[in-house]
Automatic annotation (TrEMBL):
<keyword id="KW-1278">Translocase</keyword>
<keyword id="KW-0479">Metal-binding</keyword>
<keyword id="KW-0679">Respiratory chain</keyword>
<keyword id="KW-0249">Electron transport</keyword>
<feature type="transmembrane region" description="Helical">
    <location>
        <begin position="47"/>
        <end position="76"/>
    </location>
</feature>
<dbReference type="InterPro" id="IPR036257">
    <property type="entry name" value="Cyt_c_oxidase_su2_TM_sf"/>
</dbReference>
<feature type="transmembrane region" description="Helical">
    <location>
        <begin position="97"/>
        <end position="115"/>
    </location>
</feature>
<feature type="region of interest" description="Disordered">
    <location>
        <begin position="264"/>
        <end position="290"/>
    </location>
</feature>
<keyword id="KW-0186">Copper</keyword>
<keyword id="KW-0812">Transmembrane</keyword>
<keyword id="KW-0813">Transport</keyword>
<keyword id="KW-1133">Transmembrane helix</keyword>
<dbReference type="InterPro" id="IPR014222">
    <property type="entry name" value="Cyt_c_oxidase_su2"/>
</dbReference>
<keyword id="KW-0472">Membrane</keyword>
<dbReference type="InterPro" id="IPR001505">
    <property type="entry name" value="Copper_CuA"/>
</dbReference>
<dbReference type="Pfam" id="PF00116">
    <property type="entry name" value="COX2"/>
</dbReference>
<dbReference type="InterPro" id="IPR008972">
    <property type="entry name" value="Cupredoxin"/>
</dbReference>
Amino acid sequence: MRSKRRLRWAAIPVAALLSVVLAGCTQQQLQGWLPTEPGTTNNVDRVIGLWVTSWIVLLAVGVITWALIIWAIVVYRRRKGQTGLPAQLRYNMPIEIFYTIVPLILVLGFFAFTARDQAAIEEPYADPEVKIQVFGKQWAWDFNYVDEDVYYAGVQGQADPDDDNGELVESEIPVLYLPVGKTVEIQLESRDVIHSFWVIDFLYKKDMLPGKTNYMYVTPEREGTFSGKCAELCGEYHSMMLFNVKVVSQQEYDDYIQSLRDSGNEGQLGHEYDRNQNLPGIGTPAHEEE
């Protein structure tokens, strides 16, 4: 009779798990509620795979852990008529080895797969087809299209007076154009304080540090407009430091580059516009030049 009760209690978490699995999952659930779609860039599917696999493993660990806790509560509960303390055990060597080795394997596994995917995402392109230099500044963005020798100078977005929620005027938000299917190297610089370049749908962000150059490597694989923002608290108007990324066809990209030329935006915006001019390696301090 006791063995049947144990089986009954053990079956509850198993049945609950099966119910969830059999209920089916939406596409959003299958990708772990990440704010993107598969195939947006060459790196997105890799990040989704790592994220979802990690949650499946952790969910399995959670189910097993809770099942064992419930089983121990039910099986070893005090029964009617029992008195005194139950038999006391000092240790159980197999169990202690189990709960030491298994977490260690999990941690090493998460580390190994994360390091593998990060190394692949951070692998530089030997000969990128498009080179972009991005300057973060309080509280806007400058974009240099390096090979085309044109630039876009961003200004801080302004709140829409007709919007009670304080949304910015969409037409004034800086826009970065990228051609679909091309390998892109993005050089990240800061003009003042620490910023962070984050295109939400690309599932990757990179800090922009004063006096240091960072790089991102990405191949956009789906046309569309994607929201971007600064992901590092950088001052009073940090929440308004937004931008958009437009992934377009090669013809649309070429037309946009030509529109910048026609507007007189030829050349490159350099470090002469940085607010920090006394960082190590930037130049000779003023008192030494006199």
